[in-house]
TrEMBL record:
Residues of the signal peptide: 1-19
PROSITE patterns linked to this entry: PROKAR_LIPOPROTEIN
Presence of the UniProt keyword Signal in the record: yes
Annotated Pfam families: Peptidase_M48
Domain of life (superkingdom): Bacteria
Residues of the Peptidase M48 domain: 80-245
Example of a GO cellular component annotation carried by this entry: membrane
Descriptive protein name: M48 family metallopeptidase
PANTHER family, per the entry: M48 FAMILY METALLOPEPTIDASE, METALLOENDOPEPTIDASE OMA1
Length: 275
């Protein structure tokens, strides 16, 4: 048991040292990984995805994705604006998009078709970039490391218990960590990325009212999804409600953009309606 206490204290101290970092929304964070390490992981992940997925050569789709990316990059904090962002479109029915540390964005044609207009697709990419701005990758890796250390310490402390009892206790600890820590933590990240993304799309000249409509479309195709308690993502209904509540807060940003530079001009290609 002394070993367990020692391990836990070491991890708590390590976490306390770096937990003073805060996300763009003001939430305290645990970050044990440097930006350069995450950027390297982002580059490796992007190269791997490009090898595994079919990269689209459709000029119209690529121009559409690039236009959306450029519009959002323009309103990012200065440290992110200065990066050479690489944007790719993947020919896949997967309903997904992503942004990675280091300056990488990916759009799947599945999500490009589901999003009925450029405003809805901007909500998707604003959300994904929100994960990058809030260092969610570092936070997730840090939490996994912390929990792994606690589990190792617990396993060592239980060496004198009968194997069956030891297995049951470890299984219970693992389930508790998953349902009590990791899943809610993931849902917190998703909700925070929604909040950041809505702010970004408004600043970039995309209509915030379209964000909840995107999730209405998502709700139609997510029948049979697991309960929110056991999901890494908030339910579409929760996201629709939270985004709708936030719209009045970001509308002044959208209206200021309209007055100064007009709306974003990235019309959705008609070819997305032909498949």
């Amino acid at each position: 048991m002394k070993v367990l206490v020692k391990v836990c204290l070491m991890l708590v101290v390590a976490g306390t040292i770096v937990a003073c970092t805060t996300s763009p929304t003001g939430r305290s964070q645990l970050n044990l990984f440097s930006g350069s390490a995450l950027n390297s992981l982002g580059a490796e992940s992007f190269a791997e995805i490009k090898q595994q997925e079919k990269v689209s050569t459709d000029r119209e789709l690529n121009a559409y994705a690039q236009c959306l990316a450029d519009a959002i990059i323009e309103v990012l904090p200065e440290e992110y604006q200065g990066r050479e962002w690489e944007v790719a479109v993947f020919e896949s029915d997967t309903i997904n998009a992503f942004a990675l540390p280091g300056g990488y964005m990916g759009f799947y044609t599945g999500i490009m078709r589901l999003a009925e207009n450029e405003h809805q697709l901007a909500a998707v990419m604003g959300h994904e970039i929100g994960h990058v701005l809030a260092d969610h990758s570092s936070e997730r890796l840090s939490t996994n490391l912390l929990l792994s250390g606690i589990m190792v310490g617990a396993d060592i402390a239980l060496t004198d218990r009968p194997p069956q009892q030891r297995g049951m206790i470890m299984a219970g600890l693992g389930l508790g960590a998953q349902v009590g820590v990791m899943l809610p933590y993931s849902r917190t990240h998703e909700s925070e990325a929604d909040e950041i993304g809505l702010d970004l799309m408004a600043r970039a000249g995309f209509d915030p009212h379209e964000a909840p409509k995107l999730w209405e479309n998502m709700a139609k195709i997510s029948q049979g999804a697991p309960p929110e308690l056991l999901s890494t993502h908030p339910s579409p209904q929760t996201r629709i409600r939270n985004l709708s509540r936030q719209i009045p807060e970001v509308m002044p940003l959208y209206e200021a953009r309209l007055a100064s530079a007009g709306p974003a001009n990235c019309p959705r290609p008609r070819s997305l309606d032909q498949n």
